[in-house]
Design a protein that fits this description.
The structure holds three protein chains of three kinds. Chain A contains twelve helices and no strands. By secondary structure, chain A is an all-alpha fold. The radius of gyration of chain A is 22 Å and the shape is globular. The mean pLDDT of chain A is about 85. Chain B is globular, with a radius of gyration of 22 Å. The model of chain B has no long low-confidence stretch (mean pLDDT about 85). Chain B contains twelve helices and two strands, in the order αββααααααααααα. Chain B starts with 5 loop residues before the first helix and ends with a helix. By secondary structure, chain B is mainly α. In chain B, α1 crosses α12 and α5 packs across α6. By secondary structure, chain C is an alpha+beta fold. The chains are: A mainly alpha, B mainly alpha, C alpha+beta. At the A-C interface, α8 and α9 of A face β4, α3 and α5 of C.
Chain lengths: ~260, ~250, ~350
């Protein structure tokens, strides 16, 4: 019963991973060599890209989690309409959000026209703020919805009980509400981190030319050097994938903890 | 319904405004700064977008790949979702790990990795290759969404069907599938959207046969109006999904 | 109670004497839970007041500062905390140190019959055990008033008896002013020192339990606690005419009135003037419940478990005049409307 899905995934996804590793270790001529890896690790461009990717991922995750918490807190007691509103960005592709970002936040964009001028440069800036903005816009509602899902009837009942027994609103937040939402929030944040680390099409639109994110770095490698580029790209993407797989393991473990609680 | 609070309205505006701006941009033949509204409206965007001969084939490719991927994914995911949803596994963690990995590994990596094999098999640039690549990324979503529908209630209904004398196929058609309809719809919709939104995989596996997002991206810098037009097209399934969800929420339970 | 919502309680006057155990009973939806929540500070009071120990609570005293504890219908324990940490929540809120809190919690857990469970997780407990923890938690805050909202409803019927006895014992030992809400009339009778019946947002009778069962203030009260028969008619010369053929002796002055009688007070008596046909006979474990009909009149009576009576047979029933209770202040027309 499980077999078809597992086999398909093992073949396709497993094959992809194996393919990447193979690509990084086997040159076009067919010889096995570590050249691609050596070249990658020695390349300062790679170090820059890795640092930049981590920066973008962490910043996006932290801001999205904060914004998600705020949104959830504000919208918690307002019925089903807020959840519908929060769900608006969810089905929208990242690429579209990035396109809108260019429209709004670029030089001469709508925000510029409405506000006079933006204090920050957000598109193609060195800090990658445009990329972060896109991910926060897309993932904050996702995290807010996760948190809201944990705030059901049961939680409200326990908060009431704590109130009656003498807990101040702040104590209630710390002892009843936070323990209930921190699990889903953590798992969600881990997922967002993995997504943002793998940023590909978003930096192509709103990211700086340099430094690139790791995925974009790999893409450019395939373009610049036809012979060795594939290997370099594969190596970089293998590292990125390992990071994502580690994150996946964390997420699965924490999700089971949350479920069990 | 009580009047929505300021916060809800503000959030709604925040999420709807970009869409509105996109619509305006698509129909603005001339829109120079610092004007807030276009100087001239028109349909030039459509002409420019479809001028080349890659927009329509890209649209067809996206639609076709999406449909094929979704169908395959649903069929493959169904039995797995049943096993997982009914909690028949004693140690489900490895399976969830297998599901989580393709979700979190960058799609471009998956695409590039698969290309290595596709080159040998000669399926790069083919529709089948595209579907396979999308399937790898979409299948986890399908399984995870579908499994939430299975459980003791469905089992109970199926037992009732068996007791009432229905055959296996009849049970499937008249009991299981109708009972699972909302979950099925969600899983199908999301699976389609994930395939529809794929960029990295499509770029890696079939650069000569681009899908809609691949065609869209270059327009953003070059011709914003054409980009906006294609964006509206790109947005269409998401909007339909939202409308369907709203209707599902309003329908009596 | 909330602005814009229809008022749930209309003119409630409920007094619970200090140190006593009162029960508020009534059908679901009558407003009992709303009243309890208002006293606890979980609902706003728009008109009227809540007073505890001479101090007004409804003006400006938020819920967490009232010396009121609540045991809810569901235990509402914190799933991630140990049992003793759950119990000690009120002390933690008051700033008491951990060692002292846990010591106190341990004592309370012993008192509710859960000695030795202090360090365990909440997850493995049964419904009854969880409610005991909830009770210990409510007592931990040394409240001036203890409120219990249908505390036995979610508990296994076999376990209710021991939990009920625990509540009575705990209240009695502490002389704790207690108000229990329930919709179960048998439970109400067993738990109450004072019993109040709430119907449609109003308290219609408040007295010792026996009063409400045997001397109800209205036909509605009688119906709630289960009446064997409701008789309406006019008394002439000490006799109530039930129809052309039958009249039974009643006490009290002449004139129109309504009487009720408990099902347990009616007995089978072949020599009695009132005869009726048996339409239902149900064995209920502790007794046999008979439903009898005579024309418009419907009688419910309880007889000993061994009694065998055939359906459709005609029997004589005795309604002793001293067990017939005349509903005060009502005549035939009024009681027909209620």
């Amino acid at each position: 019963m499980l077999a078809p899905a597992c086999i398909v995934l093992l073949l396709l996804f497993g094959g992809a991973v194996v393919g990447l590793v193979r690509s990084s270790l086997v040159t076009l001529g067919g010889a096995v060599s570590l050249d691609a890896w050596r070249g990658l690790l020695a390349d300062p461009g790679f170090a820059d890209a890795a640092r930049f990717s981590v920066q973008v991922a962490v910043l996006s995750t932290v801001l999205a989690a904060a914004a998600g918490l705020v949104l959830a807190g504000l919208l918690r007691s307002r019925g089903t309409l807020p959840r519908a509103v929060l769900a608006l960005p969810v089905p929208v592709p990242h690429l579209l959000v990035a396109t809108s970002a260019v429209l709004w936040l670029g030089p001469g964009g709508l925000a510029d026209r409405l506000l006079g001028a933006l204090p920050l440069e957000l598109i193609r800036d060195h800090g990658g703020l445009g990329i972060v903005a896109v991910y926060v816009y897309k993932e904050a509602p996702f995290l807010a919805l996760l948190v809201l899902a944990a705030c059901g009837q049961g939680l409200q009942a326990r908060e009431e009980a704590a109130t009656v027994l003498g807990a101040t609103p702040w104590q209630r937040l710390r002892w009843v509400t936070w323990p209930a939402i921190r699990g889903p929030l953590l798992v969600g944040s881990i997922i967002v981190c993995a997504y943002a680390a793998g940023a590909f099409e978003v930096p192509l639109l709103v990211g700086p030319n340099s430094p690139p994110t790791l995925a974009t770095f790999a893409f450019e490698a395939t373009k610049t050097d036809v012979i060795a580029g594939q290997g370099t790209a594969a190596a970089a993407l293998t590292l990125l994938s390992l990071f994502a797989i580690a994150i996946a393991a964390l997420a699965v473990r924490f999700a089971r903890d949350v479920e069990g609680a | 319904m009580r009047r929505p609070s300021a916060v809800v309205v503000a959030t709604g505006v925040l999420f709807a405004a970009p869409l509105a701006a996109l619509v305006v941009r698509a129909f603005a033949d001339v829109w120079r700064a610092p004007a807030l509204l276009p100087q001239r409206w028109g349909g030039r965007g459509f002409e420019a977008a479809f001028a080349g001969d890659d927009a329509i084939p890209a649209l067809v490719a996206s639609l076709g790949t999406g449909a094929a991927t979704t169908t395959l994914a649903l069929v493959i995911a169904w039995p797995a979702a049943r096993v997982l949803g009914e909690r028949r596994l004693h140690h489900p963690a490895p399976v969830f790990m297998l599901l989580a990995m393709p979700l979190l590994v960058p799609p471009y990596a998956v695409g590039l990795g698969l290309t290595e094999w596709f080159l040998r098999l000669g399926v790069t640039g083919t529709a089948a290759g595209l579907v396979l690549a999308h399937l790898a990324v979409v299948l986890p979503y399908t399984v995870l969404l579908l499994l939430s529908g299975f459980g003791p209630e469905i089992r109970g209904l199926e037992e009732m069907g068996r007791a009432a004398g229905l055959s296996g196929a009849e049970r499937l058609r008249w009991v299981t599938v109708p009972a699972l309809r909302p979950t099925l719809a969600t899983a199908a919709l999301v699976s389609f959207l994930v395939s529809w939104s794929q960029y990295g995989t499509s770029l890696a596996v079939a650069p000569e046969q681009p899908t809609l997002p691949v065609v869209l991206l270059p327009f953003v810098g070059a011709d914003p109006q054409a980009a906006a037009t294609l964006s509206l097209l790109f947005l269409a399934p998401a909007v339909l999904a939202l409308l369907a969800a709203v209707r599902a929420m309003k329908a009596p339970a | 109670m909330a602005p814009g919502a229809a008022p749930v309680l209309r003119g409630v006057d409920l007094d619970v004497a200090a140190g006593r155990r009162a029960v508020l009973v009534g059908p679901s939806g009558a407003g009992k839970t709303t009243l309890l929540r208002a006293v606890a500070g979980l609902e706003e009071v728009r008109e009227g007041m809540v007073e505890l120990g001479g101090r007004r609570l409804d003006r400006g005293v938020p819920s967490h500062r009232r010396r009121v504890s609540v045991v809810f219908q569901e235990p509402r324990l914190l799933p991630h905390a140990r049992i003793d940490d759950n119990v000690a929540l009120p002390l933690r809120a008051a700033g008491v140190g951990r060692r002292e809190r846990r010591a106190r919690a341990g004592e309370l857990l012993e008192e509710v019959g859960l000695a030795g469970m202090a360090a365990r997780a909440v997850r493995g407990l049964s419904g009854g055990e969880q409610q005991r923890v909830a009770l210990a938690r409510a007592l931990c805050g040394e409240p001036e008033l203890l409120l219990l909202d249908e505390p036995l409803t979610a508990v296994d019927p076999n376990r209710r008896e021991s939990l009920r006895r625990l509540i009575v014992r705990v209240q009695h030992d502490r002389r704790l002013t207690t108000l229990v809400i329930t919709h179960d009339r048998a439970e109400a009778a067993e738990l109450a020192e004072t019993l109040a019946l709430m119907l449609e947002g109003r308290i219609v009778q408040q007295a010792e339990p026996r009063e409400l069962f045997e001397r109800p203030a209205s036909a509605a009260v009688a119906r709630f606690f289960g009446t064997g028969a409701t008789l309406r008619g006019t008394v002439t010369a000490g006799l109530l005419a039930l129809d052309d053929a039958t009249a039974i002796p009643v006490s009290g002055p002449d004139g129109p009135a309504t009487w009720v009688i408990r099902p347990e007070a009616i007995s089978l008596d072949d020599g009695a003037p009132l005869r009726a046909e048996v339409v239902e006979a149900t064995y209920a474990g502790t007794h046999v419940r008979l439903v009898l009909r005579r024309g418009e009149l419907r009688l419910v009576m309880h007889v000993a478990p061994g009694t065998r009576v055939g359906i459709g047979s005609e029997v004589g029933v005795c309604l002793p005049a001293d067990r017939l209770w005349r509903i005060p202040g009502e005549d035939a027309q009024v009681s027909a409307r209620s």
